[in-house]
Amino acid sequence: MAVSFALSSAERLGWCFLRPTTAATGFRRAAGNSAAASVSVQDGHRKLKTEADLPEIKIFTMLYQMLFKGYLNSVHELQLYQKQVYGPLWKINAGNLQGISITSVELLEELLRKDEKYPCRGYMTLWTEHRDLRGISYGPFTEEGEKWYKLRAVLNKRMLHPKDSLQYGDVVNAVITDFIKRIYYLREMSPTGDLVSNLTNELYRFSLEGIASILFETRIGCLEKEIPAETQEFINSIAQMFTYNMHVALLPNWTRNYLPFWQKYIDGWDGIFKFGTKMINLKMEAIQTRLDTNQEVAGEYLTYLLSSGKMSCKDVYGSVSEVLLAGVDTTSNTMLWALYLLSKDPAAQETLHQEVTKVLKGDRIPTAEEVNSMPFLKAVIKETLRLYPVVPVNSRLIAESEVIIGEYLFPKKTTFNLFHYAISHDEKVFPEPQKFKPERWLRDGRTRPNPFGSIPFGFGVRACVGRRIAELEMHLALARLIKLFEMRPDPTVGEVKANFRSVLVPNKKVNLHFVERQKTET
Fold first, then answer.
1. Which of 308, 373, 420, 425 could be stapled to 433 by a disulfide with Cβ–Cβ 3.0 to 4.6 Å?
2. 464 in a labelled binding site
3. Best CA proximity match to 16, nearest among 77, 85, 64
4. What does the CA dihedral 125, 131, 132, 136 come to, rounded to 10 degrees?
5. Whole-angstrom distance, CA of residue 152 vs CA of residue 461
């Protein structure tokens, strides 16, 4: 559910390019600033460098790399190239957009362990501009400071703690049951009798139905043969917002009055909040009806938010809509990549199938608690998120004080770009980083990776509020699917690669054969 992290990063990446600097002695001029001294700073017995000693990012080199070197749709792969050329640390300096890029797991850990009381995500203008334009409250991904902290304290309850997520097991399983019915229907409609086409779209519908069932405490019809028009409009709005966010990030503000991208981007957001607001209003009306008739107000997440008195209605509108948006992409994309990877690795798929059937005898549906008895299942999801992190780049703003990272001293209000994709594909952290190896995450006596090598849900108090829900959905869904079907790739599709669309998505439609397994369990 960490999708919003990518928006701030997309804004920066659109404006940056890289220019090597000379060795760190003497003086040089920083763009748009007074002379910046490249000097040593004393820290105990260490002599520290400053950001003036780092390579620097500028627009034309980045545009060259994206347009002429072929990284336009694969900004995540550009991280690997830049790390190879410029090392673990470099500077972005593009007008008002400033930042230090980190591609080393050691430096990443050092930075995050120095988080402030109210960790700041940094530049989120693309999201906050829409909120300000429409008078909508900021949510957990756009709010900052003490107000964010108080907001998260309310949102965390009934969602973030592992025990809290267990209460949603029956709700999630009900959605998975309907998704499996749809898989059977799609198989029957296919020419081969077992092919599910455009799996991306199907998993998106499943994910939206799942998170909406938890947040709004009602079903919205995503898994019906015909999706309700307003639900389809919401799905289209999400796609439209993400499609045009890169356009508005790349283009200067003065183009908004002449090119259509800004208005299409805003229209996408309007559609997202229109749907979220309607669903919240329906729940408010239901609660009021029960109060008017002296009935007990009972429910789960949204009922708790609305009836607790700890959040204003305006805050609920902003927060729930943001959580809804973030949850859909996290679950759908990770599930897609997991099924695709397993279809290409029969041995790993068989290991997972054996584990699931050992725990789940007969036709029994797994409970949330039983997921803890399936370590390889959890490892498959972890390895999938390592290879395809939903958000390949994140950011942190150190706002209150200067900070030492590595051998460099940075002033307060420095923004750091955290290049998670480059770190999770570092062979020093993950041997054979391009290979799908779920076993690397097992607690069976082997040396396990540095935990900061892959942190798809973030770190610390600013970690993803919906992490436990997303994991619950993915674990239960994957366990049930792998128990019923063997996944096989569609040979007509060929190799599937990742494209960067603020989140990592497949570069083509993914079809998989869902071959029904023989029921041999007793």
1. 425
2. yes
3. 64
4. -150
5. 9
> How high is the pLDDT of residue 92?
79
Closest CA to 470 of 334, 347, 374: 334
Domains of the chain (ranges plus CATH)? 5-20+55-516 (1.10.630.10)
Sheet holding 89-94, edge to edge: 18-19, 56-57, 89-94, 97-102, 414-419, 393-398
Cβ-based neighbours of 254, under 8 Å, separated by 6 or more? none
**Per-residue model confidence (pLDDT) at position 31:** 33
Between β-strands 46-50 and 35-37, what pairing exists: parallel, antiparallel or unpaired? unpaired
Torsion angles phi and psi, residue 195, rounded to 5:
-90, 135
Which residues of the chain have a pLDDT value below 50? 1-39, 96, 521-522
Tell me if residue 499 falls in helix, strand or coil: strand
- pLDDT given for residue 391 in this prediction: 87
Residues near 232 by beta carbon (within 8 Å), at least 6 away in sequence: none
3-state secondary structure of 235: helix
Contacts of 226 (CB under 8 A, 6+ apart): none
pTM, to two decimals: 0.89
Angle at 364 between CA 220 and CA 205, to 5 degrees: 20
Q: Render 401-431 in DSSP notation, one character per residue.
A: S-EEETTEEE-TTEEEEEEHHHHHT-TTTSS
E strand or H helix at 498, and its extent? strand 498-501
For the stretch 396-412, pLDDT in tens is 999 899 999 999 999 99
**In contact, 323 and 139? CB cutoff 8 Å:** yes
Task: Report the pLDDT value the prediction gives residue 72, as an integer from 0 to 100.
Answer: 83
Q: Which two tokens stand for residue 177?
A: 């049951």
Q: What is the pLDDT of residue 3?
A: 42
Among residues 69, 97, 58, 138, the alpha carbon closest in space to that of 417 is found at 97
Cβ atoms of 311 and 320 closer than 8 Å: no
